[in-house]
Amino acid sequence: MFEITNSPILSYLIIPVLICLSRIIDVSLGTLRIILVAKGAKLIAPILGFFEVLIWLIAIGQVMQNLTNVTNYLAYATGFAIGNYLGILIEQKLALGIVVVRVITSTDASKLINFLKEENFGVTTIEAEGSAGQVHLIYTVIKRTSLQFVVKQIKNFNPKAFYSVEDIRYVSEGVFPQKTSWWKSRFSSMNGARKGK
Q1: Using one digit for the tens of pLDDT, what is the confidence trace for 15-44?
Q2: Domain 98-195, CATH number (from 2.30.40.10, 3.40.140.10, 3.30.450.40, 3.30.70.120)
């Protein structure tokens, strides 16, 4: 009778696939944990760390039990690479935290400033001197969930403006738009695009 425990399918397909999946999960969790630690998430980061190490121990245990099987090494490394990529993608989709957006433009920025104020974003403006003359500096501190919307409006109102985005760990106070539903936020971004035309 055929025994699954001695099967080449188990050794060279099933176990390597399980090792790869384990690594994908634990490295994705690890990437998220590191990002959350950097953002000061004291509760979620340790919980993710617990499951990350638990899954890693299972995966490394399988590799150590089958040291002669090169397929396990390749599965382990592949899972690590994919896990890093997926962890970053997940973090981007979650859009955790707060960022500061700096805009530098030499053209009139009043429409952009007024639009951001109408949308209840806190805006600070400064007149400054750039290498090519007078420029407007615009600072706004926003939630990362609003970043795509704000960048879209910068490109809409001032297509040639220079802008930069930087993560912020702590904010004492700020002006942020009230939470809206996904549906309403999509309509609001469409209306914003129309206003700029």
Answers
A1: 899 999 999 999 999 988 888 888 777 888
A2: 3.30.70.120
Please tell me the pTM assigned to this model: 0.63
CA angle 184, 186, 188 (to 5 degrees): 70
Instruction: Give percent of the chain with pLDDT exceeding 90.
Output: 42
Burial 138-176, CB ≥16 within 10 A → b, else e:
bebbbbbebeebbeebbebbbeebeeeeeeeeeeeeeee
Nearest Cα residue to 149 out of 104, 115, 174, 175: 115
Q: CA 132, 133, 135: angle at the middle one, nearest 5? A: 105
| Three-class HEC string of 82-98 | HHHHHHHHHHHHHCCCE
Q: Which of 141, 107, 111 has the alpha carbon at shortest distance from 124?
A: 141
11 vs 9: CA distance, rounded Å: 6
Domain chopping of the chain, boundaries: 4-94, 98-195
Round the average pLDDT of the chain to a whole number and report it.
Answer: 82
The two three-digit tokens of residue 151, written as one number: 């960048």
Q: How many CB atoms lie within 10 A of CB 90?
A: 14
Tokens of 39: 């953002």
